[in-house]
User: What shape does this take?
Amino acid sequence: FFFCEERMKGLVLLLCIIAIANANKIFVSLSGTDTSGCGTSQSQSCGSLFYAITQSSAGDVIYIYPGTYASSGMSATISHNLTITRAVIEEGPPIISFGNSCLPPGSKQALSIDNYSSSLLVEIKQITFADMACTDDYASIIYVESNLQDSDISAELVLTGVTFQDNVFTSTAVDKRFFISEQSIPIGLMTFYVPTGGDQIVVSLEECLFTHNNAIGVSSYGAVDFTAHSSGVYNSSFYDLPPLYFVESIAINFTLCGFNYNFLYDNPLASFMFINASSTGTRVTLEQTSFKDGFSPAIRLEGPNELHVHESSFYGFSNSGFGGEVRPPHVGAATCISYVLEEIETTAGSVHISDTTFAGNGVNEKNYTLPCVVGASGFSFFDMENVQFTDNGVLPLAITDIGKNGDVNIEQSTFTGNTARAIVFSAHHGNAYTAAINGCQFLDNIIPGDTIGAAIEVGSILGNAASSGSLVRIDGCSISDSNIGILVGQNEQVYIHGTTIDSSVGVDVKCYKGNVEIDGGSIDTSTIECYDCSLYNDNNSVCTTN
Assistant: This one.
């Protein structure tokens, strides 16, 4: 079997070498002319990328020489395997400039990957697309639509070193979203569309950049698998819509990417990324990726998505004048990550955050009690390990409307110098859930002028009571410099083990119609306040229900 496998690998490699050797080279230069048969050499080159595409066949490579190519009103359709790249590696990328104009009426895509009859691969390398300008109209620079239904990959688009810059869409309409077909999908500089039942589209970005665009950078609908590596978004959005907009995607992956400075519009849907999935959910992975300086939230997820954030950072997100969504409580107004699943009666969706830092977010908020840094609702599982919340102006973590029989696990994380409570479990529904807070440190988390804010708040005093099946375990934590260490609300079951609350805390534990068991650690029972609550410390009754 090994011999056969190696023979097959060798055959595939040989076929690839033969295909490359037989591929035609089509050249484009500023001195070229768009005439039939052009592109056979530099001296006989075509004058535009778009005409060169019409001269290409499957497997060809288009080489573009340096310069700025006036491409106003030009468009082309790609229906076969094709590579587009720069001709001179030592010089800057060629610039495809649309001359601050839009496409003619009826032309909605500059490069359309469409009308193909078999799976295809298109690669674009080291090219800049610039100066598309549309008013009350729309046009994608790159548009890919799935035309196949073979339960396989319909089309694959690979971009390397591609830049989109200074592309501006403006609208005088109240609704700023431009749509295609009957689907509610905003038009982006790159738009991917997979109709129901269509084969997936695979998109890969390497060292790509979206910068200074007043436009959605990527807009996707349907079965799209999207990956970006070492790419970035800077100062780009479209009114209140983010530069990355995904609906019903299969998977979204960002590794070593950077998102920076997006203060274009207050109260956006999201500063950088919006993800919506109605049924099966999307797997979203952020690995070693940074988000910095923008209006909140940085990312908004709706539906039963699976979110993984690892070794990433979020800094400087806030709305100048708070007035955004507050339902679910806190979660809708999250400054960094807003994970919203409205249907909480079923177990679906999960959040996993590890080795990540949230610092300096929410410092401009006018309302300290409603917004948060990370907010999640409706999920089945929330896991957070070795995460740092430092010097944030709002509540670091809000967990609310937990899905039926949902679980929360928070380990080895620190909450330091936040102008707010540190963790809130809001019991706004009667669903049973379990939560564990292990080995965490809470230092100096206080709302200015507030006397009731706790470092850890479990449940509600005034809101709906929790289900009697809920249980929160706080194990091996330390709390200092807060008005209240731990607040326990109606019907909440809280077990505190090996936890230290030092003398800087005014009230170590405040319990209102809840049930608390304390075992080990260091808690001053003289500072415990109970209101119709059952509380035991080392099996000794401190207070009982009336």
